[in-house]
Structures are given as C-alpha cells and as structure tokens.
Design goal:
The chain is mainly β and 235 residues long. The protein has helices at 43-56, 124-130; strands at residues 4-5, 8-9, 59-70, 74-85, 89-96, 100-104, 108-113, 118-123, 153-161, 164-171, 179-184, 190-197, 200-211, 229-232. The chain has a single domain, classed as Lipoprotein localisation LolA/LolB/LppX (outer membrane lipoprotein receptor (LolB), chain A, Clam). A hairpin with a 3-residue loop joins β6 and β7 (108-113).
Length: 235
C-alpha cells in the first residue's frame, strides 16, 4: 500500500521523515486582491497585512510545484493543483510523480490513488498528526492563523528585496518545524516557502492563483470509480 509506511501516511511518495509532501502547499495562499507595490514595512506591519489577507479569503485555487531534496532519494518534484472553500472544504490533486487526490472537510479525509484503485479514509486531525505534517502549513486556510504564530514561534524579519519580504519562523518547541516565507509586497501572500526537517529540504512555488473563484460543493465530493477499495484508517 504505497500511501502507508509504518505509522506515517503521506500524500505523494512516502517520506523518510519530516513533513508530508504536497500538503505543504497549504501554507502559501489566502485571498486578497492584488494592489500596487507597497513601501518597505517593518515586521509588525507585514504580519498585520498577512492577517488581513487571511481574513479576506472565501475560496482559492492555485497550481504548485514542490521540490524535495533528500539524501537517500536525491531531488524530486511534486506538482498539482489545490482548491479550498470556507469554512473547510479542501481538495488537492497531485499530478506528479503519481496521480493522487486528497479531499477533507476539516473532520475527515479521503485519499484516492487511482493506480492502487483504493481510497484511504479516516480522521483528519489524526492523519495530520500521524503523517508528521507540520501544523503551521495549514495556517493560510485558518487552522493556524498568523496571530497565533508568536506563542509557538520566534518570528524574525529576514529583509526586503525585489518586492519580497522574508519572514523567518523558528520553533519554540521540538514539535514544530523551521519555516521561511517570502511574501509579496503586492498581495502580502507568500510566493515561495522553505522548510527543513533534517535531512530533508522542501521548496515550494506557486502559479495561476485564482482568488475567490466560484467553487461548487460537488468539487469536494470524494467520489471514486466503481470497484475502488475503501481502506479505513484507525485514529
């Protein structure tokens, strides 16, 4: 069963340790209309604008490309598309290296792998924990908003260059992962991110962002072809 490795479950190729593949994309987009470039702001001002962008979201869609570097596997690229609708409907369609679809309503998840003709199902919170998925990467869809970063992270300003602010998040406890964000001075949304869970490094990039498009609820229905095996996972 490709998606299961011991007690850890991953979307995309199973990882040796650390965060869960393409799910990491969730950190990087929330909705706000594009504006003109802003003068350089201090860190508190940048964080306030990020919070405003988070609060403005109703729906989002975007493409992602994720580059993973792991010594035992070398470099790998994962790509696909994400859709999200408040209060909590999530869909991730991974295209490469293998087709997979993840749907969640915030309480449960459905992970469909066409090549295996199976769909894993179970509790969303338990899946996140078992997959070693870093919680702050859910921040931009409301699970861990920017105003809650400071209790769990030391936040540093990494500079302003080429219309991007660099935000550095360093964990206060061993349960979190280090995270760097490069935030656009137009949208105050990160356009690039990096997190490191040794020995793995993950860089993520985005394209074709659509802010507040019309997304029908049936897009988030976990329908599968007849004959697909349903595999429940215990909490």
């Amino acid at each position: 069963m490709r998606a299961v490795r011991g007690r850890r479950i991953f979307f995309g190729r199973p990882l040796a340790s650390g965060a869960a593949g393409v799910l990491a994309v969730l950190v990087f987009w929330s909705g706000a209309a594009e504006t003109a470039h802003q003068p350089a702001l201090p860190l508190p001002g940048v964080l306030a604008r990020i919070q405003q962008a988070q609060q403005a979201i109703r729906t989002i869609q975007f493409n992602f490309k994720e580059r993973l570097l792991r010594p035992e596997f070398g470099a790998e690229t994962i790509s696909g598309r994400v859709a999200f609708r408040r209060p909590y409907l999530l869909r991730l369609d991974q295209k490469k290296p293998q087709a997979q679809r993840l749907i969640s309503d915030g309480k449960r998840f459905w992970l469909y792998t066409p090549a295996a003709a199976q769909q894993l199902t179970g509790d969303w919170a338990s899946w996140v924990k078992r997959s070693a998925f870093p919680e702050p990467l859910l921040s931009f869809v409301g699970d861990f908003p920017a105003e809650e970063w400071s209790p769990r992270y030391h936040i540093f300003f990494g500079g302003y260059d080429r219309n991007l602010y660099k935000i550095i998040l360093r964990p206060k406890t061993a349960q979190e992962v280090p995270l760097d964000l490069w935030v656009s001075d137009e949208t105050f949304l990160p356009v690039r991110g990096r997190f490191v869970t040794a020995p793995q490094t993950v860089d993520i990039f985005f394209s074709d962002l659509k802010i507040n498009p019309e997304l029908e609820k049936d897009l988030f229905e976990p329908r599968v072809p007849p004959g697909t095996a349903s595999v429940p996972l215990s909490s």
